Structures are given as C-alpha cells and as structure tokens.
Amino acid sequence: MITNCCSDTLRNYGPRDPIPGLEFGCRECPSVLRYTEHGWKLRRSNRVYIAAPFPLKHMAITLRFGLKSVGIVCSSRWLDLPTDEWSESAALADLSDVESSSMLIAINPKDWAIKGTGGRHVEFGYAVARDRPIVLIGERTNVFHHLPNIQVVPDLTSGVQVVKEFIETVTTVVAVA
Question: Residue 109 is part of which domain span?
C-alpha cells in the first residue's frame, strides 16, 4: 500500500516530467519512489531496526546476521555498543535509527513480558507512531501488540522471512493528483 506521505511528496516535490529509471525519496518515510514505463513504483528501504531487551543483545545480533544474509541492512547501532549506554545521545541515536528504517523487529520472548528497562517498548511505540510495520518475534504481551500493523512470528528464522517478503514488495502508485 502506498502511504499518503509518498503521494504527498510526489504531488508537492516530485518531478513534473519524469523519465523511466528516475528515483525519488519520500520526504516523510524511508521509501524510495521509482518511475518506470508503467508509472511510479514504491521501493521500500531495506533498512530495519531491531528492538530487544539489552540482556538479549546476542539474539538481536544473531538476527542481524540472518537479515544481512538476505541483503537487509540493520540500522540498530546499539548492537555495536560495548555496554548498555544510558545517555541522551544514545536515546536520540536509537530514535534516529528507528526513523531511518522501513520496519521494526521486536524481540519479545514470553519470559521478558515484565522484565527489562523499557527501551524496546519506547522504540516499539515510536515505530507505531511513525506508522512502521512491526514484526513481533515471541509473544503478544501488551495491548499495543494487537494493532493491525503488527505481525507475530514464533522465532528469528520466521522473522527474517517475513521481513524479506515485506522489503521485496513493490506497489504501483495508481494516481497522483
């Protein structure tokens, strides 16, 4: 589905006489619009953000390797930090990484329903607010996990497959007034 922000970007900022092969980035989301002989097509960014409890960082790193093996870029810089850095700059970097991604993957094992410091919940909420699709690996443990743009999968392998299919999806922009 093409988002309103992509249509608005094309209408307000897009080229008037595009030629096939031209790519144009949406000003609101990480999508790229590409003009073909059949009209505008949406190409999703291949960047995803992984949110997880810090003590489960090893699972997130395993997931990152799985995503990388199918050509998907992980934007989660927190995975490269040696310790759980609690600072304004770390928080702003995490939000920036969520913003630059086309999707969020949340690792949420049942055992972690009421554990942790809550950073992954903030990242999850920010992705919901920015209308990003979310893959939830594990269990639904709160009311927001039941929103329509949340897909629940049981394990990391299933998560990689769902993200790969999402990134490969291309949607035609039928009309831009």
Answer: 47-166
Local structure of residue 28 (DSSP, 8 states): S
Burial 121-148 (b: 16+ CB within 10 A, else e): bebbebbeeeebbbbbbbeeeeeebeee
Q: What are phi and psi of 121, to 5 degrees?
A: -70, -35
The residue count of the chain comes to 177
Taking only the tens place, the pLDDT of each residue in 37-73 is: 877 777 667 889 999 999 999 999 999 999 999 989 9
Structure tokens belonging to residue 134: 């979310």
Is residue 35 located within the same domain as residue 78? Answer: no
C-alpha closest to that of 28 among 40, 15, 45: 45
CATH number of the domain residue 106 falls in = 3.40.50.450
Structure tokens at 81: 């930090």
pLDDT digits (tens, 9 = 90+) for 108-134: 988 887 787 788 999 999 999 988 999
Average pLDDT over residues 148-163: 93
Residues 141 and 59 placed together within one structural domain of the fold: yes
Say if residue 96 is in the same domain as residue 128. Answer: yes
- Please state the pTM of the whole predicted model: 0.77
In this prediction, residue 166 has a pLDDT band, given cuts at 50, 70 and 90, of confident
